[in-house]
Amino acid sequence: MNTKVIIAGVTFNNPIMTASGTFGSGAEYSDFVNLNRLGAVVTKGVANVPWEGNPTPRVAEVYGGMLNAVGLQNPGIDLFIERDIPFLKHYDTKLIVNVCGKTAEDYCEVVERLADQPVDMLEINISCPNVKEGGIAFGQDPKAVEAITREVKKHARQPVIMKLSPNVTDITEMARAAEAGGADALSLINTLTGMKIDVHRRKFLLANKTGGLSGPAIHPIAVRMVYQVAQVTELPIIGMGGVMNAEDAIELMLAGATAVSVGTANFTNPAVTAEIVDGIEEYMAEQGLWDINEIIGAVE
Amino acid sequence: MAEKFKELAIIIRQEEIADNIYSMWLRTEQIAQYAKAGQFVSLYCNDGSRLMPRPISICEIDKGDGAIRIVYRVAGEGTKEFSVLHTGEQLEVVGPLGNGFPQKSRRAFLIGGGIGIPPMLELAKELNCEKKIVLGFKDELFLVEEFKRHGEVYIATEDGSVGTEGNVLDAIRVNGLTADIIYACGPTPMLRALKDYAIEKELECWISMEERMACGIGACLACVCKSTNKDSHTNVKNKRICKEGPVFRAREVEFE
Q1: Domain at A5-52+72-191+214-295: CATH code
Q2: Residue tagged active-site, from A96, A110, A128, A253
Q3: A213 phi and psi, to 5 degrees?
Q4: Fewest CB atoms within 10 A around its CB: which of A82, A211, B45, B70?
Q5: For the domain B5-97, what is the CATH code?
Q6: pTM to 2 decimals?
Q7: Which site among B54, B211, B221, B256 would you substitute to test the A interface, given the most A Cβ atoms closer than 10 Å to its Cβ?
Q8: What DSSP assignment string belongs to A205-228?
């Protein structure tokens, strides 16, 4: 049975990854998951300097999903290189570093700092809905997507994944723009901007008022967008959005994803990622499927 | 590394001990072995539409029986789901989480306010020193008789129906109480007032904080509080309540 998948020349033991921001750098989850079982750990977004993030409350539950407005709190690239990368290198899993910034220079500075690090790929977050500067500002205009992609590619040693926002009229335009800018792969989807109000207290549940909606509530949107993007680009896609189990992951692969990230489900079950890897192997056995690559984009 | 476990816990028994306040004993062999006063557990809903665990403080630990007790208020659909579970039914639990209270042999104030009262019970059991237990309620009392087995108990109620009318600090002042160290859990205004009181009286003060959480294990950075100094993990002036806390030295916490 072959569960290996290849993205931009990097071979992953299996297609299951962690969605950035839900898994830290893996240390906390290593109490519950054998990280060697994962295709890759995608780390929480890291910037050139430490970020304090948004005021609390930063999360709220909604029916079938959750809102978050953490605001990309992160320890900055120096401590990340000193502490998080060495930790992850103890494991037989690929390391994808998610990069955030407020300006193009910020992104490039982080990418340059990572150039000589044992990192397999970079995922560029141009789609965070929870920070005022940077983030989504780069991700909602095709010209900006192309420009930031091109700029990052100039400085990057590792293959570059652009993480796209679903908060756009037509995600295929953004996918084409990233491809035109030289992206090696695409991640989609980031969270959808939402809001929740406490009707008894007449107050917003999040200090930031709005937050990114994730969880099973957005899964059908992710499936649709992965499918649409797969029709217009040759770039490999890492699909994500409300994946709770192996079936959800397989659905995204059938829609066109080469790999799948698991995010919010980690909060519902800290051992879920490894269980999904097991579930994919069970599915392959049931289907008499020898190579997982056969299901990529195989929806009829 | 701190020992944490994911267990399918079995409900030993559950009862409503005050209006909307429930007491549940859970069989959790591993969690009970490692748990200590001031730590919490994450309870997972059986209903798949509710994704986030509910962090609930540990009220009592019975290592011999491999069981923990939680006392919680029904605050929404998730806790409502827990409140209707019966003996023998199951619940996914992760724990023990967080740091717990440091335990020192000094004359202690154990101060609880509202649904912050339950974790003080296990601390009252574990601490072997002179204890003055000060409990603040809105109106209806709970757990008071159990606290009385472990120290002198003073009550404050907002409506004045029992004990001192007012808050826990009113009860301390009215009764002329003194101690060398404070352990406290309760609403933010109470903790803020205790921080100021401890500074004024030059007392060591440990407070258990609360914030809405997602992962419960330190990964997602949802449940932070502002800290006086830069935290060594986050590298900013934010501490993770679920990991570095929930118990902090009061002067480490910046209230906004």
Answers
A1: 3.20.20.70
A2: A128
A3: -85, 130
A4: A82
A5: 2.40.30.10
A6: 0.96
A7: B221
A8: SSTTSEEEEESGGGHHHHHHHHHH
